[in-house]
Design goal:
By secondary structure, this protein is α/β, with parallel strands linked by helices. It has a domain of 226 residues: Rossmann fold. The strands form 3 sheets. Strands 3-2-1-4-5-6-10 form a 7-stranded parallel sheet, with helices on both faces. Helix 3 links the parallel strand 4 and strand 5. The protein is globular and about 55 Å long. It starts with a strand and ends in a 5-residue tail after the last helix. 47% of the residues are buried.
Length: 330
């Protein structure tokens, strides 16, 4: 059996890939020709060069495959051209799913996100059935992932797409090469660059547990059904405190009101656009998202898939060890 993995050079995708390799599966990875492939260096995989925005390359990548893990996504909370998010996340997902159908792929795991799910303002954890609409999506990243998940839903219903949907919460751990927005928070906190915090929260899980949840969804998941792959709900202050203690630093004690940071975010975004520099450290969308604690319940995955997650301190410790080994902590 040949399995295609998209996003295998990235953070979560590389964790999925390594678990599949450990099982002895024959693997093909979709990657851009310009991608250095640091996360898959030395691994025994077939490389199919292409792009989610190139339908022909997706058709070639799917040819001869029996299974597909579509982990790839454009995960940026701020971009200069928001159309890039929709082209990769929505239209790229549509093109890949259609290519998989044409190639006769028998089983698919589609990686969505808890960003597409409903959550509560009072801190209660949301689940797969919490009411939500596209109008609840804050920012173009969330909106693009919401619309991509609807594409998968539609193809399951109308074309018999054999896809199971997984909704990872906030993975943390090794091989976060970019890093992701959350990984950047962990790294910068370890460097002492985050002296204050806002009152928000995330559901934190070890990236390897989330990856294992993908394989469980492939084996046991119900087609068309979604499964939250999460861990433990933590406030941002708790996360920063864990990082500080693991690094021998004093945890931040200053709580900032979100409204006080909006002018900084507006200026940071404007400067990033004018200077064509990197993504700003703080954005308006990120502050809007912080108004709700992103807490979620993984009971369905635990009950139906046998999913389990380790304590979040282990995820943070493993992330810090990897950042340190990669020379990113000085």
């Amino acid at each position: 059996m040949t399995t295609l993995v998209t996003g295998a050079t990235g953070f979560l995708g590389s964790a999925v890939l390594r678990l599949l390799l450990a099982r002895g599966e024959r693997l093909r990875v979709l990657m851009r020709p310009t991608n250095p492939g640091t996360n898959i260096e030395g691994l025994d995989v077939e490389k199919a060069y292409g792009d989610l925005r190139d339908a022909r390359s997706l058709a070639l990548a799917c040819r001869g495959c029996d299974a597909l893990y579509h982990v790839a996504a454009d995960y940026r909370l701020w971009v200069r051209d928001t159309n890039e998010l929709y082209q990769s996340n929505v239209e790229g997902t549509r093109a890949l799913m259609l290519a998989a159908l044409d190639a006769g792929v028998q089983r698919i795991v589609y990686t969505s996100s808890v960003a597409t799910l409903g959550c509560f303002t009072d801190g209660r954890p949301g689940n797969e059935d919490t009411p939500v609409t596209v109008d609840d999506m804050i920012g173009h990243y969330k909106r693009s992932k919401f619309l991509a998940e609807r594409v998968v839903d539609e193809l399951v219903a109308t074309r018999g797409l054999p896809a199971v949907i997984v909704n990872p919460s906030t993975p943390i751990g090794p091989r976060d090469v970019k890093p992701t927005p959350t990984g950047r928070v962990v790294r910068d906190a370890a460097l002492g660059r985050i002296p204050a915090f806002v009152d928000t929260g995330l559901n934190v899980a070890h990236v390897d547990d989330v990856a294992r949840g993908h394989l469980l969804a492939f084996e046991r998941g119900q087609v068309g059904r979604r499964y939250i792959l999460g861990g433990e709900d933590l406030s941002l202050r708790q996360i920063l405190t864990m990082v500080a203690r693991l690094c021998g630093r004093r945890p931040p004690r200053i709580a900032l009101p979100r409204r006080a940071i909006y002018p900084v975010a507006v200026v940071a975004e404007a400067w990033a656009r004018l200077s064509k520099g990197p993504e700003p450290q703080v954005t308006v969308d990120a502050l809007n998202m912080a108004a709700k604690k992103m807490y979620f319940d993984s009971s369905r995955a635990r009950t139906e898939l046998g999913y389990r997650s380790r304590p979040p301190a282990e995820a943070i410790a493993d992330a810090l060890a990897w950042f340190r080994a990669a020379g990113q902590l000085g």
